[in-house]
Amino acid sequence: MADVLVIDPTRRYREYLVPAITAAGHACRVVSTCEEAVASGRRRACEVVLLDVDTPGPEGLACLPELSAMRGQPEVLALTAQRTGNRAEDAIRAGAWDVLLHPIPESSMRQVLERCLYHHAAKVALIGQANIKRGDIIGTSLPLERCLHSLGVAARTDTNVLILGETGTGKELFARAVHENSERAGRGFIVVDCTNLPSTLAESILFGHERGSFTGADAARDGLFKQADGGTIFLDEIGDLDLSVQKSLLRVLQERTFRPISARNEVRSDFRLVAATNCDIEDMVRRGAFRKDLYHRLKTRIIQLPPLRERRDDIEPLARHYVDRICRQHRLAAKQMSPDFVDAVQLYHWPGNVRDLINALHYAVQAAFAEQRLYPQHLPVEIRGHVMRARRSLAPAREHDEEMHPPMSSARAGTEAGSAGTGTGTGDNGRGHATEARQSDTFGQSDTFGQSGQSEYAGASGQPGTYGQSGAYGQSGGLGLSGGVARSGRAGASGTAVHAGAGAAFAMSAADLHDGARAMPAPSSDTCPPPVERERFGFANEVFPSFRSAREVTMDRMESAYLMELIRRSRGEIASAIALSGLSRARLYELLQKHSISLRTGN
Ligand SMILES: Nc1ncnc2c1ncn2[C@@H]1O[C@H](COP(=O)(O)OP(=O)(O)OP(=O)(O)O)[C@@H](O)[C@H]1O
């Protein structure tokens, strides 16, 4: 007997489903909402969930991932009455085990349930989930749990695994974990970065060569596939592999044998292949840039790692872990994260994912060199600008919250008055303000932009900068006043040379902090205005950004401005926005969400 949970918001299924399920010898519970299902699943695990995917909003397809991640990891069977359209396909893509078309004959119901339960039992036996060694993988969000679940299944078989996900989502970490959890764990884990594989030498590096087979081949060499014998070979960024090498790889995957360059005999290797890419590989297949037959070989088991912005619950534990680690690395006393710091890192969209977060934490730890607590003001300016915009879009809710709380600190009151253009623009109380502001829940006010004199933020890939100038907080206090001129412009920036520099650094953030795409240049001095391009792209800053970081900020601004114009031109009509932009519906929604832009208002 199994436990079956039916989610039937419109009450159209229960009448005939319940008798059919109980007649098949299973226990059946019926609920009306996804929330009730999750609560019910918490009290008692179930093996199968029947979900009406025609219901719009949070009760339909959207809750499918949450359901299949419930205790017992039930299979989800989708119910639909739609014979046309993409409903069934969407449900399968979202992770449904199968789709039942309304009205469902009792015999079909029985058959599908039986097959589904058989599969579920096998899956549960296979996973033995509690035993998964996570290695360095941190996080407990539902999307990550689902990936760990796939990892568990993948590790206990010997099939090829393809790990997909944006840059920095942990593909290599997962690849290692697949190996560590497999029977091959004691053997080699060979990593091949296909991006850096020169096409002329790729075959020799992968499959080996005989002595004298080409100029410089003064000795015979085993290739990486031979080195992986008994273990796992990880082809990172497989999307970058040359088409000719893809062809050879296909044969190796089929035969498990290959011929090193100039060798007479074939060599055998018992390897397990794990591959990863951040490319849209299906699109590459469509474009002919990736072999279809190879893709079919690779996709036996896919682990799709979600971007960090889609698993915000993981951000705090990740940040905690890495802040501790960075402090240890630099022999610093452990630092706490203030609630508003946590709030800020959770609000940011992390285009470079976990790697990006780690780099920002490096920066923050250094910025807070002598302090025991991390505040949002310790984050790189470009991140603070984004967070401020995101906060602004949440403003009504927060304003309401604030009504319930004690009055804001004087520092905040001061800076807010300044933002409205009434700040005095003098630096007298700078330091005091900066400190208080950091303790308040304020954000993006420029009182601490003086950090600009510090180490450069390495963007998504670089190393942390140096500690040298963390004393910049003195200046940042002084700059507290330029918070008062965040909108009115430049007054605060024109005092001393130090302030001018810091004011220039503020130029980048000012552009970020202004509404949408209306980035206002803020020249560092009245006598020598820097060229518009330098300002627009943030090159006028004291801290010259890394190329990657500058590109990200610029791309982000462009995207944001483009979307606002797109919404304006399409008058908020999604169909016309899609037609005008050439974006897919999903991608358009994703971008709008990323930039916190509303389809209706365009801001
Ligand atoms: N879930 C996680 N828990 C802890 N650390 C993580 C997690 N995911 C990623 N990281 C860390 O983030 C960094 C990037 O991870 P990794 O190199 O595995 O990403 P990737 O997806 O392979 O990136 P790329 O596509 O750029 O090669 C590494 O330092 C890794 O340890």
UniProtKB/TrEMBL annotation:
Lineage: Bacteria, Pseudomonadati, Thermodesulfobacteriota, Desulfovibrionia, Desulfovibrionales
Alphabetical UniProt keywords: ATP-binding, Nucleotide-binding, Phosphoprotein
Keyword Nucleotide-binding: yes
Domain Response regulatory: 3-117
4-aspartylphosphate modified-residue sites: D52
Region (Disordered): 396-471
Origin species: Nitratidesulfovibrio oxamicus
UniProt feature, compositional bias: Gly residues: 420-429
Family matches, as PROSITE patterns: RESPONSE_REGULATORY, SIGMA54_INTERACT_1, SIGMA54_INTERACT_2, SIGMA54_INTERACT_4
Residue spans of biased composition, Basic and acidic residues class: 430-439
SUPFAM superfamilies: CheY-like (SSF52172), P-loop containing nucleoside triphosphate hydrolases (SSF52540)
All residue ranges annotated as the Sigma-54 factor interaction domain in the record: 137-366
Name of protein: Sigma-54-dependent Fis family transcriptional regulator
Comp. bias regions, Polar residues: 440-455
SMART domains named among the record's database cross-references: AAA (SM00382), REC (SM00448)
